[in-house]
Specification:
The chain is an alpha/beta fold and 692 residues long. The protein folds into 4 domains: 231 residues, Rossmann fold (3-Layer(aba) Sandwich); 216 residues, P-loop containing nucleotide triphosphate hydrolases (Rossmann fold); 109 residues; 76 residues. 40% of the residues lie in helices and 13% in strands. The strands form 5 sheets. Strands 1-14-2-13-8-3-5-4 form an 8-stranded parallel beta sheet. A 5-stranded parallel beta sheet has the order 16-17-18-15-19, with helices on one face. A 4-stranded antiparallel beta sheet has the order 9-12-11-10, with helices on both faces. Strand 21 and strand 22 form a beta hairpin. Helix 3 crosses helix 4 and helix 16 packs across helix 17. The longest helix is centred in the middle third of the chain and has 24 residues. 30% of the residues are buried. The N terminus is likely disordered.
Length: 692
């Protein structure tokens, strides 16, 4: 048993890497022989797309034709189709041209209305609005309905006391708590959409429809519509632009329970329909307190276990409690959803951060709709290779050599913690080095700092007055003119997050983990050691998770790189990307980048980002040249062992100078020692130096 587990998990050399070769299919392998009508339509769509672009390649034109045949042809089976066309291949232009062409042909009665029904999804609402406007302007029609959601900028609320934030929205925006709910423009969207053959939704809404526990919030409700003759029909295809949410980390903590208690207490304040039963409120809070106590009990029982897979006790979560919470709070409440999922799935308990991670695969079920996913990084996204769905890849001739793409590697650590000490130095380097238009991206927590530093500079292109940060650039194309890019850090999550996500994508490991508790402790401990991060937060024993971490990082990097000039498929302009990489991670990251950008160049760039001591300005003052010589000796030649100070300083400065800087009552320049980790101590009237 041990040997089998070891063979399945452990790998000798984790730096050796090549992306898994995927099986991709020609268009003829995915659809039956297309009719003359489909071939003519595909040619027309490809031609219209070609005319919307500047000098597209033959590869691109074939791609537009193949995609048109795929979407409107007769599929050989109903597996979701992945279309892994790289960024800049013209897929957004293609979608606009395809839908516009279909609408125009139907309008002119050259095609049946059966070509129209579909669902379109994109990441950002703003992109959907832009796409729909372009289509409507070109066709002079209005066949598409766009679903919108509540946010703090929504100005269509007709309540005299509108929600001020998302939390209030969750409480107020329902039939119980809003007298105007039936008249709310958002509450009638589904009803209105039934008059349109095409609907547009965000990727986030699609994830909600796929995973909601609310039977009334389901993709099933979005499939049917009514045509102009009053006949009920079915939208038969869904086109997803960018990766759908196939995994999402859900965490339960004591705060989850506290938030639910808080909402129950606030319910009376917002409830205008009836007086809240105080006894009922107390009963609910008592039941939630019992769940809180249950979590504390688990925490106490697992004090000696850093990680533990468990199956929660379902008796702690009664149907009566669930039904009452649904009635008062509603399905939409995120904390209710987490609580409900907690008691119906396996859970990973992480001691150090006190989190309970819910191990659950996201449901990706498009209810029999023909499903087409445009995702440029699909070939290297592990999510598609796990789970129940059997995705099929369209073979695309998008090969491109990148001899004009240069990755400048700066071997220094700029983790979230390390960057705080180096940000000033990096700012100076960027200011001194980059004069042309540059795309820079970093962590969200440093957005304000870098924004203030570069808001009046023309070299760094901001994102609507914000400094670009990880997670906020997706779907944006504001930097397509930039020939320089700087990635300050990596979009890296905690090791516990990666472990939970990996287990959700590969639930067989979680099930095996739980089962192993029945075996001897030696086997269980060995398995846990191989599955969990080491003391440095690295998955040094596990090839699968180790590669999973870095593949996720490189997928995000690739998307950022394609926001520069490189996104233009036919460009041959030089593009320079500057990356900060830890020495020990360089080889694995380099191999992954090289596998995605064939024939790109790697240039190791030496930039000094060593933290200079705060007191360094003292040493550059006129008259302190000898003092500077002293600290140069301490930095590079001294062994750090406890030494009488006079033995060292007498080689460079006088006793008077020593007393002026360090030996007086104020010890005004002691920072010169402190920042070097040197302890200055006095014993029996004599000063000593020692490296801490």
């Amino acid at each position: 048993m041990v040997t089998k587990i070891k063979d399945n998990i452990v790998n000798k050399e984790l730096k050796d890497f090549s992306f898994e070769k995927i099986d991709s299919f020609e268009i003829k392998d995915l659809i039956n022989e297309p009719s003359k009508e489909i071939i003519e339509l595909a040619n027309k769509i490809a031609e219209n797309t070609k005319n919307s672009l500047s000098n597209p390649s033959e590869q691109q034109i074939k791609f537009y034709n193949d995609c048109s045949q795929l979407i409107y042809g007769e599929l050989k089976d109903n597996n979701p189709i992945l279309i892994p066309a790289k960024c800049g291949f013209g897929k957004t232009t293609f979608l606009k041209s395809m839908i516009s062409t279909i609408i125009t042909e139907v309008k002119n009665e050259n095609l049946s209305e059966d070509y129209l029904p579909m669902i379109i999804t994109q990441e950002r609402l703003e992109d959907l609005e832009k796409l729909i406007k372009a289509i409507n302007d070109e066709t002079d029609t209005n066949y598409i309905y766009l679903f919108k959601g509540w946010n703090e900028k929504f100005d269509g609320c007709i309540n005299t006391s509108p929600p001020k934030n998302e939390k209030e929205h969750l409480i107020k925006c329902n039939k119980l708590n809003c007298e105007e709910y039936e008249s709310c423009p958002l509450s009638h969207q589904l009803e209105k959409s039934r008059n349109f053959p095409i609907i547009a939704i965000t990727t986030a809404r699609l994830a909600i429809l796929n995973n909601s526990i609310d039977p009334y919030i389901s993709l099933d409700n979005y499939i049917q519509f009514t045509d102009e003759n009053g006949i009920t029909k079915r939208r038969n295809r869904i086109i997803i632009d960018e990766k759908p949410k196939l995994s999402e980390i859900k965490i339960v903590t004591q705060d989850t329970i506290n938030n639910l208690r808080s909402y129950i207490e606030k319910y009376n304040r917002f409830n205008h329909s009836r007086e809240f039963d105080k006894e009922e409120e107390i009963s609910l809070k008592e039941q939630l307190n019992a769940i809180s106590a249950y979590l504390l009990e688990i925490e106490r029982d697992t004090l000696n276990e850093k990680y533990k897979i468990m199956e929660p006790d379902k008796s702690k979560y009664t149907k009566k409690l669930k039904d009452k919470l649904i009635k008062l709070i509603g399905y939409k409440h995120p904390d209710f959803q987490k609580l409900d999922m907690f008691f119906s799935n396996l859970v990973l308990r992480c001691r150090d951060n006190n989190n309970f991670y819910i191990i659950k695969q996201n449901n990706f079920d498009t209810r029999g709709l023909k499903t087409f996913i445009f995702d440029g990084t699909a070939e290297i996204s592990i999510e598609y290779k796990t789970g129940k769905n059997d995705f099929k890849y369209l073979k695309i001739d998008d090969y491109k050599s990148y001899p004009h793409l240069n990755f400048h590697i700066i071997k220094t650590n700029v983790s979230r913690q390390s960057l705080n000490k180096k940000k000033d130095l990096i700012t100076e380097w960027i200011t001194d080095t980059f004069s042309e238009k540059t795309f820079a991206v970093t962590y969200k927590m440093y957005e304000k700092y870098f924004r203030e530093k570069f808001k009046n500079k023309t070299n760094i292109i901001l994102d609507t007055n914000k400094f670009p940060y990880f997670g906020n650039t997706k779907g944006k194309n504001d930097w397509y003119e930039c020939g320089k890019m700087i990635q300050i850090g990596w979009n890296r999550h905690s090791s516990d997050d990666y472990l939970a996500e990996f287990l959700s994508l590969n639930p067989e490991y979680a099930s095996l983990w739980l089962k192993l508790y029945e075996f001897e402790m030696e086997i269980t401990e060995f398995f846990i050691e191989q599955m969990t991060p080491d003391n440095y937060g690295n998955f040094s024993h596990n090839e699968e998770i180790y590669h999973f971490v870095f593949q996720n990082m490189v997928v995000d990097l690739e998307q950022e790189v394609y926001r520069t000039k490189i996104r233009e498929f036919n460009t041959e302009e030089e593009v320079d990307v500057y990356l900060f990489v830890r020495e020990k991670e360089y080889e694995i990251i380099k191999s992954m980048i090289a596998a995605r950008f064939k024939n790109c160049n790697f240039i190791e760039t030496d930039v000094d980002f060593k933290i200079k001591p705060k007191g360094q300005n003292i040493l550059v003052r006129k008259g302190n040249e000898k003092l500077a010589d002293l600290f140069n000796y301490l930095d590079y030649k001294w062994d750090g062992k406890k030494t009488l100070a006079s033995i060292i300083y007498s080689k460079f400065i006088s006793v008077d100078q020593w007393r002026e800087h360090f030996g007086g009552k104020n010890q005004k320049d002691l920072i010169l020692f402190q920042d070097r980790g040197i302890k200055l101590s006095k014993t029996k009237g004599k000063w000593y130096l020692k490296r801490k």
